[in-house]
Structures are given as C-alpha cells and as structure tokens.
Amino acid sequence: MIDRLRQSLQRFLSLFRRARLDQEHDAEVAAHLDLAIDENRKNGMSAEEARRQALIQLGGVAQTKENYRDHRGIAWLETLLRDLRFALRMLRKSPGFCAVAIVALALGIGFSSIVFSIFYNGILNPFPYRAADRLIAISVMDDRNATRQFRPVFHLDEIIAFRNQNHTFEDIVGVSSWDVLYSRKGITELVHGCVMTPNATEFYGVPPMLGRGLMERDAQPGADPVVLLGYEYWKKEFQQDKSVVGKTMMIDNQARTVIGVMPPRFYLFGADFYALISWDRTEPSMADAMANNDPQRALLFLPQWNSQKRHQPGHSERRPVRDRAASCASA
Q1: Residue range of the domain that includes 146
Q2: Per the structure, how many domains does the chain have?
Q3: Which of 23, 243, 306, 328 might form a disulfide with 170, Cβ 3.0–4.6 angstroms?
Q4: Residue 232 sits in the same domain as residue 297
Q5: Taking Cα atoms as reference points, which of 192, 197, 232 lies closest to residue 215?
Q6: Of the candidates 57, 296, 258, which has an alpha carbon nearest to the alpha carbon of residue 156?
Q7: What's the rounded mean pLDDT across residues 257-262?
C-alpha cells in the first residue's frame, strides 16, 4: 500500500519536473544507443549497419521516449494539461472570441442554475416539510348554523378532541400567527411570530440549522420559556451571529431563551420566531378570542394524511369538532 502511494506521488511530482527528467532520459537513451553501436561494430558491422541494428534492438528512440513518459507520469492528466495550454494559446490569439465565450458560458450556467432552482423549489420540492404532499388544511362548516360558512380556525381543545379520536390522519398540528412586542436596549418593536402545538417539530420534520428544535418538554408546565428564530430574522437582526443560541429575548414582557435557528427554506407563516403553546392551556370562547384580537387563541387546523389511510373522516371522527363548533358559535 505504501509503495503504491509512493509511486503515485512520484508520478504526480514528475509533472512539475518534466524538462529535467526528459534530459536525463535522453542522455540515458543516447548512452545505451552508443553502447549498442560499439558492440555491433566489434562484431564486424559497418557504422551505418551498426546504428540501424542498434535502433532496431532499442525499438526506436521516439517510441522509447513516449513509453517512458507514459509510465513516468499520469497520462490523462498530462493530456488534459496539454489541451488546456493549447486552448489558452488559441484564446490568446483571439481575445474578442475569448470574451464572448466566457460571457456566454457565464450566462448559460447562471440561467441554468436559476431555472433549476425555480423548478426544483417550485415544482419538485415546493415545501421543505416532511411528506409535504400529504399536508392539508381543514375548514369546518356547521350544518346547524344558518350562515353555513366555513371556519378555518379552531380552539385548542377542538384540535385535541379531533386528534384524540382521529383514525384517518397520521397526526394533527395547530399553528397560529402571533404579533407581539420585542424589547431590546431601550427599543421596542413589533415582531411577527408563530405559535405551534408541541408536536409541531416532529410533524414538520425540519431540523434547525443551528442549535436545537422545539420539543414537547418545552411546553410542559414550569419549563423555561424558549424561542426558535426564523432564518431571515436571524440574518437581519443578529447578522448571522451563531453565538445567539443561549441568549435571552424579551418577547411580550417575558424572557425567552433562544435555542436555535431554522433553515432558510422553513418560512412557516413568514414568522420571525417560533414558540410552543401547551396542550394544557385553558382556552376562552372563540368569540372572546376574536374580540380580543388574540391570534394565539385561534389556531389553524393542519392535519396530515396517513400514507396507509386516505379515506374521508368518518361520522364518529367529525362529531367532536362539529359539537365543539356548535358550542363555540353559541358562546
């Protein structure tokens, strides 16, 4: 193994000592040829015949040199270098053509990269979430309501009821936008957040690019308040400072520890940060939540299809949300 590595290294280094090695080999071939000629002359041959026979025995000077070069270096690399040198000489002779070729290649590569990025991110893989093709959003309409309007937002206990009695979906998650005040260095500004149910990290299946993600234990009673930053906000507000993990942010008059940063393509709700809402949180009526403009109380219902169960929810599965919807409408 060591011998093969040493041989490969010597072949590579020979690319940078070609002139000296060629001179040494030429001298060696000439000496060998002279010895063969002298030997033929001693055998009674004429000078011309002695040289001819020596060249025959040697196999030809040019052929011998070529075989030596092939075994000495790396043939394909030497060929590539010769082609590159030839190309550079040709381009030097035609600088106008060189400029046009370089610009054309740059534009072609750039345009191809843009088209591929758009096609991949927009068609092949539009969402970075796990099994994004099986994500759906549900709206509920109460037949007993005279308006018969669809409702896309739900109480937390509605989502819990449907999740506990669900046999159609693999899992159900609740998310909501949350615009709150962020205080820092005597400055207070409005930031756009997103609150999620504790199963959101596993549901979306997107790991953070920095730090750790939100976990179920972060929503347990008594747990330290934490926050997960969006990539764009981390880039704008913290200038991509990796040491932000572990720092404290005063959000909605509550100190929250930064535990991580999400990757660029994770842009759920276009949020600046992400936080959890506990399953055990007591919810007011829907009317009170809307009247108080508290989006943390009104969660969007996002079930995910089970890959082995694609039938429509049955009557027994619709009943918990239907009954809760009716009670909320009358609240």
Answers
A1: 132-330
A2: 2
A3: 306
A4: yes
A5: 197
A6: 296
A7: 95
